[in-house]
Design a protein that fits this description.
Elements (H helix, E strand, L loop, with lengths): L1 H15 L4 E6 L11 E7 L4 E8 L5 E9 L5 E6 L5 E7 L4 E11 L10 E10 L6 H8 L3 H69 L5
Antiparallel strand pairs: 1-8, 2-7, 3-6, 3-8, 4-5, 4-7
Helix pairs in contact: 1-3
Length: 219
């Protein structure tokens, strides 16, 4: 029992572990900033907590802006942050299923010309669901021990897996219904096409027979 619990805790830790993305963002003039923006996205289900942290390096006369949005049935913009200095963090809950996209732009101040020396590094850490919870605050508020806290993390991760499986099951049922409906339509369309071709063939034969008899070419 203890061994199984230990493996579950290790598995939950590996699942919860988040990997930050770090990259260099070249600076451009204001007219070209939209074309040079860098975007990172990840699918997030509805009613899911997302915690985004951003760190940026130093850059002379450069301004990094961030926009976090989501497509889907209800397109939404969750964050607009201009001129990020050193770090920035934001927490929000999604209102629909879709891709959550974080787009960065790095614009030069007026009077500066684009050059390879103008760039700043950006580090993005997007924590979703169980990853986004503040477990330290939870442990303090509910006075949880280390093992209890790990079990609470595991409970949250398992719940997310169950929700994800339920979502995939619903998607599978929707796709199956769509395929069955499409197959039914194709079947009736094929039968209609066959009936039309047979009818045209019979009509053509009868028409040619009458035509040749009028011309006395056949008896």
């Amino acid at each position: 029992m203890t061994s199984s619990l230990l493996w579950l805790v290790i598995l939950s830790t590996l699942i919860i572990l988040a990997q930050a993305v770090k990259f260099d963002l070249p600076a451009t003039v204001a007219d070209n900033v939209e074309q040079s923006q860098r975007c990172l996205s990840q699918f997030v289900a509805k009613d899911t907590q997302v915690y985004i942290t951003v760190k940026v390096g130093e850059g002379y006369n450069q301004r990094i802006d961030l926009t976090v949005s989501q497509d889907g049935d209800v397109p939404s913009v969750y964050t607009r942050k201009r001129d990020i200095q050193q770090s920035f963090a934001n927490v929000f809950n999604t209102i629909s299923d879709g891709q959550v996209t974080a787009c960065f732009t790095n614009s030069l101040d007026k009077g500066f010309v684009e050059n390879s020396q103008y760039n700043r590094w950006v580090e993005l850490d997007m924590n979703i669901g169980a990853e986004a919870m503040d477990y330290n605050a939870l442990a303090k508020s509910e006075q949880l021990g280390p093992l209890e806290l790990e079990l609470r993390k595991l409970e949250k991760v398992v719940q997310e897996i169950v929700d994800e499986m339920s979502y995939l099951k619903q998607r599978e049922a929707l796709m199956r219904n769509t395929n069955e409906s499409t197959n039914e339509r194709v079947k009736w369309f094929s039968l209609l096409s066959l009936f039309t071709l047979v009818s045209l063939g019979l009509w053509q034969i009868l028409y040619l027979q009458r035509f040749f008899r009028r011309k006395h070419l056949i008896d």
